[in-house]
Specification:
345 residues; alpha/beta; 7-stranded parallel β-sheet; 3-stranded mixed β-sheet; 14 strands; 17% strand; disordered C terminus; binds uridine-5'-diphosphate-4-deoxy-4-fluoro-alpha-D-galactose
Length: 345
């Protein structure tokens, strides 16, 4: 069984490559390395002991996609490739619409031409409207507030329309909550460009001494300690969810959304405190104003993924912190400057 992974060199993509290979799948990767690098794939090879076939190409480029599909016998696709920074999407909405929508439309077109109709799409909890009660279930009201989230929502709509029109397609829309952590080897992990926007990479960069202190965005929310609460999920659990979703997509038809979360909320200060406790590192912090667009709490009801896919998250917050720190402390500069693997080879 051969799976094409778009954006397979990225944070979630690289972890999914490891889990697919471990589950016995053949994989090939297409990535243009716009927000990732080939080093992550070399490390996936190191972890799994398997070599990875990859194409350096843009998923918007249909002629490149045609070459990939004609050269390989592909059974299903996992589509990760896309821009993902919320703030940047507000400043450059057209770049987001063009890249994220065009790549998906091109991919669908080429998949159809080559008779490959099983797709897992990398969606996000950000597609849910902000006024839903918690926990979020897949049938709740949708409505993203920034261009990044809207690209996820629009792509979901496109894929729903596709499956309504063509009953031989099967699409799993995976709505991720907050993926953190890293592979236990410490070889692959999240390597954000510039100053991180997300909480866990920010905490680990404070701990490693790259950033001075954590700014806690708001302490007056209606939560246990007043700071924002999110459903953090270990990236390896998330990657395993993709293995289950691809099995489902190969054996079914139709379009279904699945929440991939743990069902538990953790506040900013709880995550910071767990990190300090697990790692023994110092993470100074200061309370800062609320960040525009943030909700007090977001967490999933992941029951559908358990019932239909047979998947459930297993790793707890301590493991997420331990693994995030192993990655960060072994690779203080992420993949950018650290070329020790090349040197070793
Ligand atoms: N936070 C801080 N300080 C920081 C960064 C974050 O206090 O420096 C807080 C936020 O206010 C929030 C929590 O930490 O309460 C989590 O923030 P993240 O930026 O890590 O994550 P978000 O929940 O805002 O967003 C993430 C992804 C989005 C995705 C969304 C889905 O970044 O791409 O989850 O719910 F759409």
């Amino acid at each position: 069984m051969s799976i094409l992974i778009t954006g397979g060199a990225g944070y979630i993509g690289s972890h999914t490559c490891v889990e697919l290979i471990s589950a016995g799948y053949d994989i090939l990767v297409v990535d243009n390395f716009s927000n990732s690098c080939a080093e992550s794939l070399r490390r996936v090879e190191q972890i799994t002991g398997k070599s990875i076939k990859f194409y350096e190409a843009d998923v918007c480029d249909k002629s490149a996609l045609r070459i990939i599909f004609s050269e390989n016998n592909i059974d299903a696709v996992i589509h990760f490739a896309g821009y993902k920074a919320v703030g940047e999407s507000v400043e450059k909405p057209m770049m987001y619409y063009e890249n994220n929508l065009m790549s998906t439309v091109s991919l669908i077109d080429v998949m159809e031409k080559y008779g490959v109709r099983n797709l897992v799409f990398s969606s996000s909890a950000t597609v849910y409207a902000g006024d839903n009660p918690m926990p979020l279930t897949e049938d709740m009201k949708l409505g993203a507030i920034n261009p990044y989230g809207k690209t996820k929502l629009f792509i979901e709509e496109i894929l729903r329309d596709l499956c309504s029109a063509k009953d031989n397609w099967c699409v799993a829309l995976l709505r991720y909550f907050n993926p953190i952590g890293a592979h236990k080897s410490g070889l692959i992990g999240e390597s954000p460009k510039g100053i991180p926007n997300n909480l866990m990479p920010y905490i680990s960069q404070v701990a490693v001494g790259k950033l001075q202190r954590l700014n806690v965005f708001g302490d007056d929310y209606d939560t246990r300690d007043g700071t924002g609460s999110r459903d953090y999920i270990h990236v390896v659990d998330l990657a395993k969810g993709h293995v289950k979703a691809i099995q489902w997509a190969i054996n079914n038809t139709g379009c279904e959304a699945f929440n991939l979360g743990t069902g538990k909320g953790t506040t900013v200060l709880e995550l910071r405190n767990a990190f300090v406790q697990v790692t023994g590192m110092d993470v100074p912090y200061a309370i800062a104003p609320r960040r525009a667009g943030d909700l007090a709490e977001v967490y999933a009801l992941p029951a559908k993924a358990k019932d239909v896919l047979g998947w459930e998250a297993e790793l707890d917050i301590s493991r997420m912190c331990e693994d995030a720190w192993r990655w960060q402390s072994n690779n203080p500069m992420g993949y950018e400057i650290d070329n020790t693997i090349d040197i070793l080879k």
